[in-house]
Specification:
The chain is mostly helical. It has eight helices and no strands. It starts with a helix and ends in a 6-residue tail after the last helix.
Length: 168
């Protein structure tokens, strides 16, 4: 395939690129950026394209991989390093902004409701809120995995019942 045929074939995919990029990013501006990145990478890697293969599939693979790499890079940039022993604060936003009196009051009510739970439900629920995985909770509390899951489920159900006035 000549360079001109390759370029023409890539340009003909413009409409398909836009639709696919929008389905990946769910944002018009990000989709346009992804299409532009895909064009750039496709042209830069033209020598890696094998003649008599599917140009559309090759280009869409570039787009998908670019999207995944950009997503992973963005997640790494937003990850905080946590120095605590149990890694409780990993990936928590560093800026919580200002807290309104209403949300502070609601937060206090939620804390009271959690504290009012029976210890069998409160402990696994708090550990889950702190970021422990079900398996870790089961191991630390010496419980079966199913027991941990059901206790957290029932704790949520009880809290939703008690705090129904605070639901949005």
């Amino acid at each position: 395939m000549t360079s001109q045929e390759f370029t023409s074939g890539i340009i003909d995919l413009k409409g398909n690129f836009h639709k696919y990029a929008l389905s990946l990013t769910l944002d018009r501006d990000n989709a346009l950026d992804l299409v532009q990145d895909t064009y750039l990478k496709a042209i830069q890697n033209q020598n890696k394209f094998v003649d008599d293969t599917n140009l559309k599939a090759w280009a869409f693979t570039i787009m998908k991989n670019t999207f995944i790499n950009n997503y992973r890079r963005k997640m790494r940039e937003n990850t905080m390093m946590d120095g605590t022993q149990e890694l409780y604060y990993l990936n928590l936003p560093s800026d919580k902004g200002s807290i309104s009196p209403e949300s502070a009051y609601a937060g206090n009510e939620i804390e009271k409701a959690i504290d009012a739970l029976h210890e069998d439900y409160r402990l696994p629920f708090r550990m889950h809120l702190e970021g422990f995985k079900y398996e870790e909770i089961a191991e630390k509390l010496n419980l079966k995995l199913g027991t941990v899951k059901s206790r957290i489920f029932f704790a949520r159900k009880k809290l939703m019942s008690v705090l129904k006035d605070y639901s949005g």
